[in-house]
Amino acid sequence: MILPLLIAPLLAGPLVLAAGPSSCRVDKFPYPKVFGTRLLDLKVTEVHQYAPWPYGLGSLIAEERPINFCNVTLTYTHPGWNDAVNVYVWLPLEEKDWNGRFLGTGGGGWAAGFEGGNAPAVGMGYAAAMTDAGHGSLDAGVSAAVISDWLLHEPGSVNLPLLYDFAYVALDDMTKIAKRTIEAFYGKKPDYSYWSGCSTGGRQGMVQAQRFPENYDGVLSVAPAMNWATFVLSEIWGQIVMNELGVHPPTCEFHAITEAAIESCDELDGIKDGLVSAHGQCKFDPQTLEAVTVAKEVWRGPHNEAGDQEWFGLPHEASPHISELGPFGGMLETECPPTAPTDGKKCAGRPFIMTTSYLRALLAKDQSFDVNSLTRDSFFRFLRQSRQEQLSVMDTADPDLSAFKAAGGKLLHWHGVADQLIPVNGSANYFSRVEALDPEVRDFYRYFDVPGIQHCDGGPGLFPATALDSLVDWVENGKAPDSIEGVAGNVKRPICPWPLVAAYKGGDADKAESFECKEDFGAFGFPKVKGGSYLKDEL
Ligand SMILES: *[C@@H]1O[C@H](CO)[C@@H](O)[C@H](O)[C@H]1NC(C)=O
Ligand SMILES: *[C@@H]1O[C@H](CO)[C@@H](O)[C@H](O)[C@H]1NC(C)=O
Hints:
Radius of gyration: 24 Å
Signal peptide: 1-18
Mean pLDDT: 86
Number of helices: 13
InterPro entries: AB_hydrolase_fold, Tannase/feruloyl_esterase
GO molecular function: feruloyl esterase activity; metal ion binding
Bound molecules: 2-acetamido-2-deoxy-beta-D-glucopyranose
Strand content: 15-25%
Distance between the termini: 70 Å
Keywords: Calcium, Disulfide bond, Hydrolase, Metal-binding, Serine esterase, Signal
Structural class: alpha/beta
Family: Belongs to the tannase family.
C-alpha cells in the first residue's frame, strides 16, 4: 500500500513545488473550516496588472505599481443569521513576490474594508485580506463608508447580525479564513500576521488586540474610531450649540479663529513651522467674534450644566479642516443659502454624516429622524442610551490587553492631532488606561500623537509613512520604536511616543537630528472625562 501512495503525486502530473499562476484555481482552495460559519460560494481568479489603486485611507503608503495576484473571494454565512459575508484574499501570484507575511486591512466609516487597503498591501509584498462584513463595500469604494441603509431592517428594527458582523464577528472570521487560504496557496502558513487600518480600520485593529489576541503578531491602529459609544455622538456637540444660539457662522470664521490659535501656540516647541507639537500646552483664548462661543465649545467638548465633561473636544489646530469634508458634513459644518445675509442667522448646520447615520439608525432607529432637532437634553439622553446599547458592541476601548501581551503581540497606534473628526485625546486616554492596568505597557504597546495630521492623512504635518515597517521591525527583530519617522517631501522629523514631544534642538530644521523627544514640556494632564462605563474615574 505504501508504494502507490508515494507515486500517486507523480502520476498526477509534474511535481510543481513553487507556487505560481497555475495554482490560482478553485480546486486549490478547500473551504477553510471556521467555527460558526458555512460556505456559500468560492471564486478564484487571476488578476494581472491591477492599477490604479483606489484610495483606501492613509495608514498604508506604498508606491503605486501594477500588481498581479490570485483573487480568492469566499462568501459565507453564519447559519441562522441570514447574512452573506465576503472575504477578499489577495495573494501575490508569484511566490517570489510574497514577503511571507499576512496583512489584514481595514475599512473606514461604515465600510468594513476597501480594495484601496488590499492593493498597497500586495504592492508591499503581503498576502492581504479584507471583509465586507456582509453589507458590501467593495464596489462603492470609499463612498460605501457613508452608506448605512443596511443597519435597519425597517424603522425600529436594527439588523443585529449585520451590526455584530461589522462590530467584530466578521473580523475574526476573515483572519482565520485568510490564514488558511494563504496556507492552501503557498503550502505554508504566513511567518507573521499584521493588521493595518485607520479610523474604522483602526478600531478594527483594536478589536483584534482586545477580543482576538492571538490573531495578529502586530497591529497598526491609526486614528481608531474606538471610543465609539461616546465620540460618534459627541461630534454633534458644536451643531447643538449653534442650533441653540440660532446662529451658524460661516466656516471661514472658524478658519480664522483656528489660524489665530495655531499662530499663538506654534512656537511652544521651539520652532515656528505652522505645527503645534505640544497641543496640551496651547492655551489660546479668543474673546471676540461671534463664532468664538461655538469654537470654544467644540474645543471643550460636551459637558453638562454642572460642568462635568462627557468627552474630549478638538485641539485648537483641528478645526480649520472641517470644510474639506465636502458632502459629508462636519463638526462645525454649516450651509447658507446663496442670498443669506452674512450674520449666519439664515444658515443651517450640517452635522458629520457618521454622527447623523449612527444617531438615526442605531439610536433613534428611524432614518427620517431630524438630527437638527437635537437639544442638550436629548443629546444627553441619547448619549446614555448609546453607552447602554453599544459599549459591548461597537465601543472598542477595553483597556485589558493582557492576553494580547501574553501572546507576544505588539501594538503601534498613532493619531493625527489635527484630526477634525475623532478627537485625538481619546487615543492617549486609552493608552493611559492600559498603562494604569499595566505599567510596563511600553513593552508591547506604543502610542504616538502626530502633529498637524488630519483624520488618517492630509494636513500640514509630517506623515509617519513607515509606521508599518517600524512595527515589523519591533515584532520580528525586537526593535521597539523609540520614535517613528515623520516625512513631508525632503523634510524628516521624529514623532515621539506619547507623552513625549519632538522639541527643536537647533540646526537644520529639515533634518531629524535637529529634534529630540522631550518630556519636560511643561505641566501636563488630562481634563477628567466621564466617557463610557469602562472609564469611570480612572483619569
Ligand atoms: C475579485 O473577485 C471578486 C469575485 O469574483 C470580484 O467581485 C472582484 O471584483 C475581484 N477583484 C478584482 C480586483 O478583480
Ligand atoms: C487634551 O489633552 C491634553 C494633554 O495631552 C490637555 O492638556 C488638553 O486640555 C486636552 N484637550 C481637550 C480638548 O480635552
